[in-house]
Amino acid sequence: MKKERERLVVKFNNGRGAILCSGCRMILKIGSEFTPEETQYIRGELNHLPPQYCEQCNNELLKEHPTT
Ligand SMILES: [Zn+2]
């Protein structure tokens, strides 16, 4: 089963895309800051990108799932 929170979360504001934190839905990036891949994903040309998290959620994730 795929978990919804394990993919990049985007939303649209007046036709412009924004990338949201996959944890708390805070806006992380707006149009001019996107990488080419992120732009493709928002246009629907790319099916999957890994989620992005704000600093706070990142810290929470590291506490839950220590990497090393
Ligand atoms: Zn967050």
Question: Quick recap of the structure?
Answer:
The chain has 68 residues and is of the alpha+beta class. The protein has helices spanning 36-43, 55-64; strands at residues 9-13, 16-20, 27-30.
List keywords for this structure.
alpha+beta; 2 helices; 3 strands; 26% helix; binds zinc ion
Total strands: the figure is 3
What does the overall shape look like?
Answer: elongated
| Count of separate DSSP helical elements | 2
Distance between the termini: 26 Å
Major beta sheet, strand line-up = 1-2-3
State Rg. 13 Å
Mean pLDDT over the full residue set: 88
Helix-and-strand structural type: alpha+beta
Q: List the bound ligands.
A: zinc ion
Which oligomeric form is depicted?
single chain
Stretches with pLDDT under 50, minimum 5 residues: none
Helix content: 25-40%
Strand % is 15-25%
Instruction: Give the tally of structural domains.
Output: 1
The H/E string reads EEEHH
Largest sheet: 3 strands, antiparallel
Layout of SSEs?
Elements: E1 9-13, E2 16-20, E3 27-30, H1 36-43, H2 55-64
Antiparallel strand pairs: 1-2, 2-3
Bound molecules: zinc ion.
Zinc ion binds at residues 21, 23-24, 26, 53-54, 56-57.
Descriptive report:
Strands 1-2-3 form a 3-stranded antiparallel β-sheet, with helices on one face. The chain has helices spanning 36-43, 55-64; strands spanning 9-13, 16-20, 27-30. Helices cover 26% and strands 21% of the residues. It has one domain. The radius of gyration is 13 Å and the shape is elongated. β1 (9-13) and β2 form a beta hairpin. The model has no long low-confidence stretch (mean pLDDT 88). With 68 residues, it is an alpha+beta fold. Zinc ion binds next to α2.
